[in-house]
UniProtKB/TrEMBL annotation:
E.C. code: 3.5.4.26
Pfam families: Amidohydro_1
Tree of life domain: Archaea
Organism: Methanosarcina lacustris Z-7289
Acyltransferase recorded as keyword: no
Signal peptide boundaries: none
Start and end residues of each Amidohydrolase-related domain: 45-355
Enzyme class: hydrolase
GO molecular function, one term: diaminohydroxyphosphoribosylaminopyrimidine deaminase activity
Record-given protein name: Pyrimidine deaminase archaeal predicted
Organism placement in taxonomy: Archaea, Methanobacteriati, Methanobacteriota, Stenosarchaea group, Methanomicrobia
Listed PANTHER family: AMINOHYDROLASE SSNA-RELATED, CHLOROHYDROLASE FAMILY PROTEIN
Keywords: Hydrolase
Length: 369
C-alpha cells in the first residue's frame, strides 16, 4: 500500500547472490527501505519476482493445438508448421481472431502472469499496429512492467509501405522483434533496422532455433537481444559473448517443437548474459515456475544459477527498473511464498526448494512496483 510502510517477515532470498537471510524487509511506496536480520518465527519465503523475458501473448487464443493428435485436422509437430510466418498455425489463427477477442485472451495471460509471480515480461507482438495496440489495451490497469517488440504485418509489400508500417509500429512499442534472418531479404531487414535505430528503439530477433544457418546473419544485424540460439556452436557463443548481447532461452518451447535444447551451460561458461522465457502461449503456459523446474531438472546447472536466469537476469533484457535483487533502495518486485505449504514444508535450502518444486499455489502474495 503506497504511503504506508509494510513490514514483511520471513526468509529473504537477498542480494545479487540470492543469500537466504532470516529477518524482515520494510517496503514503502514500492521501494525496499530496510532489510533486518532477526528471528521472526515466520515461515514466509520472500523472493524476487520472475521476469518472463520472451513471450508471444497473441497465441493465447489457441492453447490446445492438435500436436499430432488423431483428428480430422492434424498439425505436424514441427516449428515451421506451428509458428513460421506467414502461414504457420498461429498466424492463420491470429488472422481469424477479432481484435476484441485478441485483447480478451491476452489479458487472461497477463493476469495468469501476475498470479504466478511474474513482475515483468517481454513480448514479440505480431500483427502490426493492431497487434501492438491489443497488447497495450490489455495491459491497461495491470501492474506489470512490459517490453513490447512489435512486428510489421505487411512484409511482402513494397519497401515504402513496409517502412511506413514499421514507423507506425515503433510509435507504440519499445522496438521490433523479428522471426529470423532467413525469413526476410537481408537488405529489407537492414532497412527496417535503420528505421528502428533512427527512432532510438530496440531490435530483437530469433536466431539458431531450428538450425544455426541464421545465426551469423542475425549477429551481423547487431541486435539488442537474441532469442533461442538452440543450435549455436562454441564459436557462435564466443562471438555472442564478445558482442555482450543478452540471450533469452525457452527450454519448454524448444522441447515441444522438437528443435533440441539450447546449450545453456556453454552460454554461461562463455560469459553470455542469459534470461528465460515461456515463448508461445499456444505451446506452454506463462507459468515461470514450470520453466524453472524444467530447466533445473534437464540441464546441469546449479539451482541458484537457474533461479537467477528466471528472475534477476531479466534485467539484462528489461532494464534495471523491471526487476532486481532484494536490497535496500531497490524496487519491491517480490513474491512471498508459504514455506510451510504442503509442497514446500521441510525444504532445507529455500533457493533449491523453490527452483525444483515450488508452484503458483505456494504464493501468498505478489508485490509489483
Amino acid at each position: 500500500m503506497y504511503g504506508t510502510e509494510q513490514v514483511i517477515p520471513g526468509t529473504i532470498i537477498a542480494g545479487p547472490e540470492l543469500d537466504p537471510i532470516v529477518g524482515y524487509i520494510c517496503v514503502k511506496n514500492g521501494i525496499i527501505t530496510e532489510i533486518g536480520e532477526e528471528h521472526t518465527y515466520s515461515t514466509n519465503i520472500i523472493a524476487p519476482g520472475f521476469v518472463n523475458a520472451h513471450t508471444h501473448l497473441g497465441d493465447s487464443v489457441c492453447k490446445d493445438p492438435p500436436l499430432g493428435k488423431a483428428s480430422g485436422f492434424r498439425v505436424k509437430r514441427d516449428l515451421e508448421s506451428l509458428v513460421k510466418p506467414p502461414d504457420g498455425l498461429k498466424h492463420r489463427i491470429l488472422r481469424e481472431t477479432s481484435y476484441k477477442t485478441l485483447i480478451e485472451y491476452i489479458k487472461k495471460s497477463l493476469l495468469d502472469m501476475i498470479g504466478t509471480g511474474t513482475c515483468a515480461f517481454a513480448d514479440f507482438r505480431e500483427g502490426g499496429v493492431l497487434g501492438v495496440a491489443a497488447l497495450n489495451k490489455a495491459l491497461e490497469g495491470l501492474e506489470l512492467h512490459s517490453l513490447i517488440f512489435g512486428r510489421p504485418a505487411e512484409l511482402q509489400s513494397p519497401l515504402e509501405v513496409v517502412l511506413a508500417e514499421v514507423r507506425r509500429v515503433l510509435l507504440h512499442s519499445d522496438g521490433l522483434g523479428m522471426s529470423g534472418a532467413n525469413d526476410l531479404d537481408m537488405e529489407l531487414l537492414q532497412e527496417i533496422i535503420a528505421c528502428t535505430r533512427d527512432r532510438k528503439k530496440l531490435f530483437a530477433i530469433h536466431a539458431g532455433e531450428k538450425n544455426r544457418s541464421d545465426i551469423e546473419k542475425a549477429l551481423s544485424l547487431e541486435p539488442d537481444l537474441l532469442i533461442h540460439l538452440t543450435h549455436a556452436t562454441k564459436k557462435d557463443l564466443d562471438e555472442v559473448a564478445q558482442t555482450k548481447v543478452p540471450v533469452v532461452v525457452c527450454p519448454r518451447s524448444n522441447f515441444v517443437t522438437g528443435v533440441g535444447m539450447a546449450p545453456i551451460t556453454e552460454m554461461l561458461e562463455a560469459g553470455i548474459r542469459v534470461a528465460a522465457g515461456t515463448d508461445n502461449v499456444m505451446l506452454n503456459s506463462v507459468n515461470m515456475f514450470a520453466e524453472m523446474e524444467f530447466m533445473s531438472k534437464v540441464f546441469s546447472i546449479e539451482d541458484r544459477q537457474v533461479f537467477k536466469i528466471c528472475t534477476l537476469n531479466g534485467s539484462f533484457v528489461m532494464g534495471p527498473d523491471s526487476t532486481g535483487s532484494i536490497e535496500k533502495g531497490n524496487k519491491a518486485n517480490l513474491m512471498i511464498l508459504n514455506g510451510n505449504s504442503n509442497n514446500l514444508a521441510g525444504i532445507k535450502d529455500p533457493v533449491s526448494g523453490i527452483t525444483k518444486r515450488a508452484r503458483p499455489d505456494d504464493i501468498l502474495a505478489v508485490l509489483h512496483s
